[in-house]
Amino acid sequence: MRQPLGIRSKQTRDAKKLSEQLSDGRLESIHIPSEEEELIRLSTQLRQTIVSDRKRVTCRIKAKLFQFGYNDLVSDTKANETWIKKISSHPDFPTALKRELDYWCKQWLQLTEDNKEQNKEIARQSRKHDHCSQQEAIYKSAPGLGNISGKALSRELGDLQRFSR
């Protein structure tokens, strides 16, 4: 859906005004990340993409099983390697369905391996950069934030000191 012309012109004008103020240094509270910060963020962003893709593949597997009436194989439990291997080794699927499910199961297993590798890369990155591990400790101290969330927030938000103004 397109926006009316008046709204678009206001957005363009506002964007131009903001960019001028930013380039003049008049917007002090806006933090522009450095190239190093952007590179550090890439690892958690890639991990998020992998997790989203794996979830999408899980939904496709379940949809195919529902489509052909294999409701007993689709449980309310989360997808895991045991469930994927059970589907891969199921003997009663028609050939075409078996071929497609095997494809999606291989994709799921590959994405799981990629996720494990990305987790290792994020951990290496934390050990390499002291500021990352310090920020992660601060974020993980908040109730409800675990290891992965703490790492992602530390990379996306950075140092909390800049919010104290």
In short:
This protein has 165 residues and is mainly alpha-helical. The chain is 71% helix and 0% strand.
General description of the model:
Residues 11-20 have a biased composition (Basic and acidic residues). This is Transposase. InterPro entries: Transpos_IS110. It is a single chain. The relative contact order is 0.10. The chain is built from 6 helices and no strands. The radius of gyration is 23 Å and the shape is elongated. It has 2 domains: 33-128; 130-165, no CATH class. Helix 2 runs antiparallel to helix 4. It has 165 residues and is mostly helical.
Layout of strands and helices, then pairs:
Blueprint: H1 5-24, H2 35-67, H3 81-88, H4 95-128, H5 130-140, H6 147-157
